[in-house]
Amino acid sequence: MGTLYVVATPIGNLEDITLRALRILAEVSLIAAEDTRTTRKLLVHHGIKARLLSYNEHNMKERTPRILAELALGDVAIASDAGTPAVSDPGYELVVAAISAGIRVVPIPGASSLLAAVVASGLPPRRFTYLGFLPRRAAERRRLLISLASDPYTFVAFESPHRLRRTLEDILAVLGDRHVAVCREMTKFYEEIFRGTVREAIAHFNAPRGEFTLVVEGAAPDSPVASEEEAISLLRQLKAEGIRAKEAVRSVASKTGLPHRSVYALWVEMSRQANS
User: Fold this and answer.
1) pTM of this prediction?
2) Which of 38, 128, 131, 220 has a Cα at 20 to 30 A from 70?
3) Percent of the chain at pLDDT above 70?
4) DSSP codes of every residue in 233-276
5) What count of Cα atoms within 13 Å lies in the side-chain half-sphere of residue 266?
6) CA atoms of 3 and 76, how far apart (whole Å)
């Protein structure tokens, strides 16, 4: 019975790979790769000849039994296009299938855009929440942000360039003008780490390009208390966007510093006036 190696590969710079990872990739009988073209470039760069098999979200169901059969005969490595498999990339299902079959699973750690962004952000790294890729739909994205409104911990998310500004605008609307680090093209030639407020980030990224990792400040324990007029304005905005009462009240209470019961009372009064 072979071993399944979960191998972290570079997130941009081909030099960011461990000696152990290179040895494993050279020794295994098969490499299951998210994109064989991307992995082949890495192997050629380091002079490694290996047998590749594509393994991605489109073919994982049919490929998993084949890879398990390969594992019965020898060692297999799984590699994603960048970073660590199974973390916002294919691999989780194969790891679970291997464990269920009694196959040894060994992680080979390496480059991570998540940790690289956190440690370079200048925001508290001791505890943080990882969100993966944020929801594409605005309403779902805002609901997720509302659920984090009172969370004191830094949170991290991936975002595409064509949704970056809309996501930053949602963060500003739901969570306020917090401090953020917007990390672009980590470890690549055009790497950029922007540190500032959400409003400043919106102004800076006028035409976003590349891959982005967002690191966002958690809720401050001593946030200043806003006026009732400001709270009502925020409630109206969220209600117009279809956010339900419970979520809207929680978000506005966290953002303004007003007691939850007071914000709920404002919501009820606002709704009564709208229906009268």
Assistant:
1) 0.79
2) 38
3) 98
4) HHHHHHHHTT--HHHHHHHHHHHH---HHHHHHHHHHHHHHHH-
5) 23
6) 6
Q: What pLDDT was estimated at residue 225?
A: 60
Q: What is the rounded CA–CA span in Å between residue 66 and residue 16?
A: 30
**124 vs 141: CA distance, rounded Å:** 23
Structure tokens at 104: 């040894």
d(CA 120, CA 181): 8
Structure tokens given for 21: 């990872």
First to last CA, the chain: 72
Question: Is pLDDT of 200 > 60?
Answer: yes
CA distance 100 to 88: 21
- Kindly state the tokens that stand for 30: 């098969």
DSSP per position, the chain = --EEEEE-B-SS-TT---HHHHHHHHHSSEEEESSHHHHHHHHHHTT----EEE--TTTHHHHHHHHHHHHTTS-EEEE-SSB-TTSSSTTHHHHHHHHHTT-EEEEE----HHHHHHHHH-S--SSEEEEEEPPSSHHHHHHHHHHTTT--SEEEEEE-GGGHHHHHHHHHHHH-S-EEEEEESTTSTT-EEEEEEHHHHHHH-SS--S-EEEEE----TTPPPPPHHHHHHHHHHHHHTT--HHHHHHHHHHHH---HHHHHHHHHHHHHHHH-
- Beta pairing, strands 30-33 & 52-54: parallel
| Per-residue pLDDT reduced to its tens digit, 114-170 | 999 999 999 999 999 999 999 999 889 988 988 888 889 999 999 999 999 999 999
Cβ-count burial 242-265 (b if 16+ within 10 Å, e if not): ebeeebbbbbbbbbbebeeeebbe
- Dist CA 136 CA 30 (whole Å): 35
